[in-house]
Amino acid sequence: MKYRSLLYLLVAALFVTSFAVTDLSAQNDMTRDEWEQQMAEYTQQRDELRQQLDALEAEIEELNEQIASKQAEYQACREEILAMVGATEAEIRSLVERIQQLENQVSALERLSDQELLQRRDEVDEVKEAVNELKGNRQTAHPDTYDRLMALDERVNNLLDRLEGMVITYTVGTWSRDRDCLWNIAKKRDIYDNAWLWPRIWQANRDKIRDPDIIHPGQRLQVPPKGDGRMTSGEQDAANRYYREVREGLR
Fold first, then answer.
1. How far is residue 206's CA from residue 233's CA, in Å, rounded to a whole number?
2. For residue 195, what is the DSSP state?
3. CA–CA distance, 63 with 68 (Å, rounded to integer)
4. Is residue 166 helix, strand or coil?
5. 170-195 burial string, b = 16+ CB within 10 Å, else e?
6. Predicted pLDDT at 109
7. 7 and 60 in contact (C-beta within 8 Å)?
8. Nearest to 170 by CA among 153, 146, 186, 155
9. Other C-beta atoms within 10 Å of 16: how many?
10. Angle between helices 2-24 and 32-85 (to 10 degrees)
11. What is the pLDDT of residues 88-131, one digit of tens each?
């Protein structure tokens, strides 16, 4: 860009010089000696500018050759890397797009409150599985993907650590001895001290509890934190469905 600007300036200067020389010939108030001296000065300036212009054009040509050489080297290096990881440019672009999708998904999960994140634990596990699958693909060793994938893996691990720090485990006792049901467990002082929060335990253990009225001795249930004591919209929807089924005699 610098050389291009100088080139334009020199061309403009040559134009102005030529115009000035032409204009001088029309002036009648100069002596011949003065006119010839002025002409000699302008001619010298023109020749100097032309020399500078020629030098700049030669330098630009040399720089363009260097750029073309570096671009060829870069392309050859990139093709060599693609061969090493066994990928095409299209496959690398596809991997970059997939990583971008996962990055966006993780960003959304990171913005959730603790309680909301617990409700989407399955999604965190799915992202972790997807990241592990990508890590097993040798094509992701490509420079366009490797660092981003490693950073993404660390972010997912941080989410998993955050989840582990939120949850305690409760082992279900017997009804005869402990009177354990989700209502009574939620009512325990060291759990929620609020029986109405029982849907929180249910929703956090959907893989273990099909029917919230039925839990079994020895089951190890994940107990999410109490938080502000209010149910999330998902927990409230689950509770409303349960109470509606009870009213309709479906339970």
1. 16
2. G
3. 9
4. helix
5. bebbeeeeeebbbeebbbeeebbeee
6. 96
7. yes
8. 186
9. 14
10. 160
11. 999 999 999 999 999 999 999 999 988 788 778 889 999 999 99
Using an 8 Å Cβ cutoff, are 132 and 140 in contact? no
Provide the pLDDT for residue 167: 77
Amino acid at 1: M
Rounded Cα distance between 216 and 242, Å, is: 19
Q: Which of 11-20, 37-46, 242-251 is the least confident region?
A: 11-20
Cβ contacts of 185 within 8 Å, gap of 6 or more: 170, 172, 191, 198, 201, 221, 223
CA angle 154, 121, 134 (to 5 degrees): 40
Determine the pLDDT at residue 8: 52
Nearest to 233 by CA among 195, 191, 203, 193: 203
Distances in Å between the Cα of 71 and the Cα atoms of 67, 77, 185 are 6, 10, 68
pLDDT in tens, 191-216: 999 999 999 999 989 999 999 999 99
Among 25, 49, 50, 51, residue whose Cα is nearest residue 38: 25
**For residue 217, what is the DSSP state?**
T
| Tokens at 134, concatenated | 């990508």
Let me know the angle formed at the C-alpha of 150 by 145 and 156, rounded to the nearest 5 degrees.
Answer: 120
Question: What is the model's pLDDT at position 159?
Answer: 95
Is the pLDDT assigned to residue 3 strictly greater than 90? no
